[in-house]
Design goal:
- By secondary structure, the chain is α+β, with helices and mostly antiparallel strands.
- It has a domain at 152-294: Butyryl-CoA Dehydrogenase, subunit A, domain 3.
- The chain has helices at residues 53-63, 88-104, 113-122, 130-174, 177-197, 202-223, 226-245, 250-269, 274-294; strands at 8-13, 27-34, 39-45, 67-75.
- Strand 3 (39-45), helix 1 and strand 4 (67-75) form a beta-alpha-beta unit.
- Helix 7 (226-245) packs antiparallel against helix 8.
Length: 298
């Protein structure tokens, strides 16, 4: 199953009706999608297409789970915010209607230019079946949107997989450092005791070694990050598994990212060397990059 991003764009057009079909106005449809915690649908439809909104909402909720999706549909040939020049047929029809009205109401005022433009802009050939036509067009638009979201999701999945590999490499570098640091600290304690005792006797040397071992043990407990590294490895395995499985995984990935960030923070707080601190910082940078991208996954 593919990994889907919540970011996508699609636009489709119905084109003119076939010669043997009833005349109808060609339609245009545009879908834009960005990330959101839930599925948030916004419709921008002309008056003739407003009746299709319930069916469009049902169609989109059956296929999409998350994202802020804006659907805009229009009748081709119209220019939003502009004027459409009336055709000769439309003008003749208005004149006929006006003459009929004035035959009964001789004092009725003639149509003004503004009224003519307003009336002709509302007239569309074959508007009866437009809502159904829009729903059929929306199915094509939805497939195009899902394809765009899948392509973006593939890119995100590839990036996340690369970051998982880098984090696993950093964890592998950090794992052998703790025993080395404990041994270095034990030797440091032992050297300091020897210096404090001067020329130590065998008994004094034995006491110094015991004390150094005790101090090294306490130090090892303070800097032990084995549990953090084990949990981090487990989280990385789960992230890799989810990416391979695909589907609706954005929220689960978001939770795992939070847990990974917590382990990296603990690793940094227990650090007793510059190298381990550097590894912790590099981990947090990678995890933060993953967090930003996971916000876009459905």
């Amino acid at each position: 199953m593919a990994v889907y991003s919540m970011t996508g764009y699609a636009t489709v057009h119905s084109g003119p009706a076939p010669a043997d079909a009833p005349p109808s106005a060609p339609l245009g449809l545009e879908m834009r999608s960005v990330n959101s915690r839930f599925l948030d649908l916004t419709f921008k439809l002309s008056d003739e297409l407003r009746a299709a909104e319930p069916a469009l909402r049902e169609l989109l909720t059956s296929e999409l789970r998350r994202g802020k999706v804006e659907i805009r549909a229009w009748i081709e040939g119209r220019q939003e915010g502009g004027l459409k020049a009336p055709t000769t047929t439309e003008l003749q029809r208005l004149v006929s209607i006006q003459d009929g009205v004035r035959a009964w109401l001789p004092t009725a005022a003639a149509f003004s230019v503004a009224e003519v433009l307003s009336l002709t802009s509302r007239q569309v050939t074959g508007t009866t079946g437009l809502p159904d036509e829009l729903v059929r067009l929306a199915k094509n638009g939805l497939e195009a949107l899902k394809s765009a979201r899948a392509r973006e999701g593939e890119r995100l999945a590839s990036m996340l997989s690369g970051h998982v590999t880098q984090l696993a490499s950093l964890a592998a570098q950090a794992k052998p450092m703790v025993p080395q640091l404990v041994e270095q600290q034990r030797q440091r304690f032992l050297d300091r005791w020897q210096e404090a005792l001067g020329v130590a006797t065998p008994v004094d040397s034995e006491a110094a070694r015991d004390r150094a071992l005790s101090e090294a043990t306490a130090f090892a407990i303070r800097i032990d990050v084995a549990e953090e590294l084990t949990r981090l490895a487990s989280h990385l395995e789960e992230v890799a598994r989810l990416i391979m499985a695909g589907g609706e995984l954005g929220k689960r990935l978001d939770f795992l990212i939070q847990e990974m960030h917590r382990e990296a923070n603990t690793l940094g707080s227990k650090s007793s060397s510059l190298e381990l601190t550097r590894i912790s910082v590099d981990m947090k940078v990678l995890i933060e990059q993953m967090r930003e991208q996971v916000q876009n996954i459905e």
